[in-house]
Design brief:
Structural class: alpha/beta
Order of helices and strands: EEHHEHEHEHEHEEEEHEHHHEE
Shape: globular
Strand content: 25-35%
Helix content: 25-40%
Largest sheet: 5 strands, mixed
Distance between the termini: 25 Å
Number of helices: 10
CATH topology of the largest domain: Peroxisomal Thiolase, Chain A, domain 1
CATH class of the largest domain: Alpha Beta
Bound molecules: acetyl coenzyme *A
Number of strands: 13
Low-confidence stretches: none
């Protein structure tokens, strides 16, 4: 069977207009700009407008990615939406985006791996493309975490924001090679024993409610540094590469201190880490494509660069992927 490699042909993103600053938050809960900045690096986050949904955000990011790729909705065979905040329990929000962008072919589905969702979705789309089951795919991360936050809980509500990012993947003939554009390698992990450290306390089957995000911050922090460092080491080991071969690290943007802890442990120079956590907060599955879009637009990430993405999220789920842009 012929083999295809998945090339990122375009990146797009969207952030809701409304900005919520740390100062704004300090008027809502017992917190301060200083505490939030010092413990997380976050200065502000974007919040979806009333009635603006995950599908709306994802649609805007998808259209921007299509435009950047020079392709149309009708060229797409597949949409995978990584989200933990779907518009409805069903249908899949990916199908709503499919209709919004005017795509009347192919197939679309949601994938929930929380903050690791974009890496899971990218690896899944890559598998469909590799086997020739899709030629062009939209991989979207879109979230409205503002809808599942307990706005009276200062330990969680200061951390997250809303947003969406998307990439268009195009299949090119040939297996992935180190020097060629495309997804070179990915590594996915999960361990459900830790599900009670980061979860939402509601859902259709258990409570028939939407619920709120609950987190044991300290423990998540510890697992994040260990597991993320491990998954970066794993993809580098598997491919025979080292930290110095990688042009840009685009981590899931959870917390500046997690990014710094991982960088210190692996010897990653600060100047090669793309960070948007100060401006976006943690946008869960949207954070990696949002950061990639920022760095592609400001000229840091260029065609041919080797980019390493990584994340850890509720579950726990975690993983990393290596992409030649
Ligand atoms: N403002 C002011 N004080 C606060 C706030 C706040 N927003 N939140 C907590 N505090 C207080 C606590 O009540 C505590 O007070 P106490 O000592 O009187 O009991 C004190 O600050 C210290 O609390 P800790 O939880 O020990 O603070 P820590 O340094 O661990 O920082 C944080 C908390 C930022 C949540 C950190 O643990 C963290 O970043 N964890 C990772 C969580 C994360 O990123 N989750 C995102 C999802 S998973 C992912 O994306 C990787």
């Amino acid at each position: 069977m012929s083999r295809f490699r998945s090339v990122i042909a375009g990146i797009g993103s969207y952030l809701p207009e409304k900005i919520l600053t740390n100062k704004d938050l300090a008027s809502m809960v017992d917190t301060s700009d200083e505490w939030i900045k010092q413990r997380t690096g976050i200065k502000q986050r974007h919040i979806a407008a009333k009635g603006e949904t995950t599908a709306d955000l994802g649609t805007k990011a998808a259209n921007a990615a299509l435009k950047a790729a020079g392709l149309e909705a009708g060229d797409m065979d597949l949409i995978i939406l990584a989200t933990a905040t779907p518009d409805l329990t069903f249908p899949a929000t990916a199908t709503l985006i499919q209709a919004n962008i005017g795509m009347v072919r192919g197939f679309a589905f949601d994938l929930n791996a929380v903050c690791s969702g974009f890496i899971y979705a990218l690896a899944t789309a890559d598998s469909f493309i590799a086997r020739g089951q899709a030629r062009n795919a939209l991989v979207i991360g879109a979230e409205t975490f503002s809808r599942i936050l307990d706005w009276e809980d200062r330990t969680t509500c200061v951390l997250f924001g809303d947003g969406a990012g998307a990439v268009v993947l195009t299949g090119e003939p040939g297996a992935p090679g180190m020097g060629e554009r495309g997804i070179i390698h990915s590594y996915l992990r999960s361990d459900g024993r830790f599900s009670d450290l980061l979860y939402v306390d509601g859902g259709p089957s258990k409570t028939q409610t939407v619920g709120h995000l609950r987190m044991s911050g300290n423990q998540v922090f510890r697992h994040a540094i260990t597991n993320i460092s491990g998954s970066i080491a794993k993809v580098l080991d598997d491919t025979g590469l080292t930290v110095t071969d990688v042009d840009w690290f685009v981590p899931h943007q959870a917390n500046q201190r997690i990014l710094e802890g991982v960088s210190r442990r692996l010897g990653i120079p600060e100047g090669r880490v793309i960070t948007t956590v100060a401006e976006h907060g943690n946008t869960s599955a949207a954070s990696i494509p949002l950061a990639m879009d920022v760095a592609a637009k400001d000229g840091r990430i260029k065609t041919g660069d080797l980019v390493l993405i990584e994340a850890l999220g509720g579950g726990f789920t975690w993983g990393a992927a290596l992409v030649r842009m």
